[in-house]
Amino acid sequence: MELAGVITGAIAITISGILSGILAWKNYFSPFNVKIYCGNPRLEPMPQRFKDGSTVMRFSAILPLYFANTGAREGVINDIVLIVNSDQNEWLFQPFFYTKYGIKTEPTFGKNIFDDPFNEPFYPIHLAGKSKVYKSIAFALLKHERFPFGTNPLVAGNYNFAVRTLEAGKEEYETKLVFNIDLNDERVANLSKGNIVIPFLKEITDKRQQISD
Questions:
Q1: What average pLDDT does this structure show over 27-48?
Q2: Are the CB atoms for 167 and 75 separated by under 8 Å?
Q3: In this predicted structure, what is the pLDDT of residue 2?
Q4: Distance between CA 107 and CA 100 in Å, rounded?
Q5: Do 25 and 41 fall within a single domain?
Q6: What's the CA gap between 93 and 44, in Å, rounded?
Q7: Of 82, 86, 87, 85, which is closest to residue 38 (Cα–Cα)?
Q8: Average pLDDT estimate for 41-69
Q9: Alpha-helical runs (H) found in the chain
Q10: Per mean pLDDT, which range of 1-15, 61-75, 160-174 is the poorest?
């Protein structure tokens, strides 16, 4: 009985030590690990003019992003890009600036955020260990050989948005967030008229539909 008690006690101490070690690792030594969440994006019309004088409508995107570092160590996001896919095109967007877009600014619905004098040029994002940061970022189309602007008119359909980041010390961009937006005929028509569109993420719309079913 005494031996069994000693063994049980030893096992309990070992398990406790392992759990303490795991907890210490999570709280003090776990690596920089960022998760990104997005609120409702805001699409602003951006006409694309060609040398022959013709014009097609494109858009810029303002994304209200929440960055959460679940790791104990600090880190830096050096760059962040947005890739948008549709049935017709694949576009690359670069971060232009930080803006104050959010729930409080939505009453200024008709105001072009790109004209806001308080916008800040994009700079790397630093996150301390176990911290969260909110950044609303305006993305604009970037001319790139792999991602041509295209000459086709903007059409209705499902648009896939992928947010990719480049962390300090790494050589490759990583996909951190993927969501979809349904640009229906009405939304495309509004953008074509020069109006701002704030659609819900398709995933959220689908879940709301399930509630009413």
A1: 87
A2: yes
A3: 56
A4: 13
A5: no
A6: 13
A7: 82
A8: 90
A9: 2-24, 185-192, 202-212
A10: 1-15
